[in-house]
Here is the input.
Amino acid sequence: MRAVVYRGVNDLRLETVPVPRIGPRELLVKVAVCGVCPTDIKKIQHGAVPPPRIFGHETAGTIVKIGGGAGVHASRFKIGDRVALHHHVPCGGCHFCRHRAFAQCAAYKRTGITAGFEPAGGGYAEYVRVMPFVLPGVVKIPAKNSFAEGAMLEPVNTVLKAVRRLNLLPGDAVLVAGQGPIGLMFTKILQLARIRVLAADLLESRLKLAKKFGAKWTRLANSLSAAGGGEGRGEVVSQLDAAIIAVPSDDAVTQAFRLVRGGGQVLLFAHTKRDAPSPLSAAGGGEGRGWVAAFSLDLASVCVDEKDLIGSYSSDFTLQAEVARLVFSRRLDVRQLITHTFPLAQTAAAVALAARPAEDSLKILVAGTSRCAVRRR
Here is the structure.
């Protein structure tokens, strides 16, 4: 089969590799589409993991083979089923799972889908092997829905998980900084929960989209705290109950902390790249001695103003059924977010566009066959 193999930093090659062999209680899925995720982009561009790997984890396709063995989910699946895959499933019983910190679970950190080499999702290939421990995360795609909608379940899950981490009530006002595909998902999910959204972005075109996705107010990101006019300025800016930072900008975090009122929350969603710490000049003991984070924050805003700085990373397996209802009912119509579909042979171009979006680009998909033509919305 054909697969796009990561061979080093920014080195993606279309190669011929064996079709994965499946064992007992495993599935072989023919890939229809796979989304391009910023997590994989960082690994490809920064060499965060050693090659070779086959990336891609926002995957949907068709079951073409089912492994035998006692306990196989044969009653649940059959050959020909159209499915969306979920590459991380927690154990459910460890310390982290009991605290619902599923992304910290050791079992969750294992990747259960591969197209070869060290498991890395495998969606940038024609076939993937689905291992037994992630079978509970496989979701059937209804006949009325597309493979593309199935591939969007995983990113939508991450957004819904983050929203659930916030202490919000209907009528609250929330800033969503960044209106790319993830930010637009936040805007719509919040609007469905009757939250008033102030959408911010550097591009006017994204702000127009944010309005369509339910934003009550929009502002250019570089004018949020500046004097002057503009929709969304005034009362709402001084009465924000939370802010979601959907772009990896430290300045946006600092600005959000100033804008959120006492008792509010600032949630980091895009700060996934670990920065090198700065050395301390003073001596001291204890774990981590000699290091301090580069990010600066007025700690009195946390203590006296009772503002929370929290993060959310990856997905929550327990939300899968709810996410499926949200997407497949089209209450959140993810089809509006998909602007480009590239053939497998052009995965490198898909990754490059997703890494540096054009004004007309949002969610990028890769088709599981190199015979697919490049599609733009």
Observations:
- The CA atoms of residues 240 and 260 lie 5 Å apart.
- The radius of gyration is 21 Å.
- The chain has two domains: 2-157+315-376, 168-311.
